[in-house]
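Predict the structure of PNPLA domain-containing protein.
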Amino acid sequence: MFKEAARASSAAPTYFEPFEYQGKKFVDGSFVANYPLNILFKELDSFTKHNNRIQLAGVVSIGTGEPAQSERKYKSGTTLKAKAKNMAHLSTLILEQVVGQDLLAVEMAEERCQAHNIPFIRISPKGINVRIDQIDDGKLMDMIWTTQLWLIQNLREVDKLGELLFKLLSEPDDRKRRSNTVL
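Done. Here is the predicted structure for PNPLA domain-containing protein.
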């Protein structure tokens, strides 16, 4: 089931065929629902409103990585060339807002989970700005290295994820706390 859920919500509908499950086609939300947890919460609210007892065991939010934040300085300029350059910067900003990481949505989802005692784990290494169709080995190695560093620097989150998955998939008498993490 996990594999199907991951495949059905894979990013970049222009790169992946729609996922078929039980005769239905699923396509990533992309522009419409770039961070679909709000849709999950809406459906959960709809179920509970009709006295259906459903409780989330946990939420694992896996991002595609986030570019490192950079300071932007926009100047309108007086020449045509300067104005054109500013328009290019503005179009980049608009594109980032439409398809980029929506930190407010992530924060809202995390706060909702905390309010209902639902474990929330976000995995999205910062400093990654790689296109999905990237084939340059050097850039791909940089991405892998950045991800490895993130995993090492966020062992607590990695352990939290392992504990959540172990709790969900193990028998009650098998549960033991991990003593360390080996990467």
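The chain has a mean pLDDT of 75.
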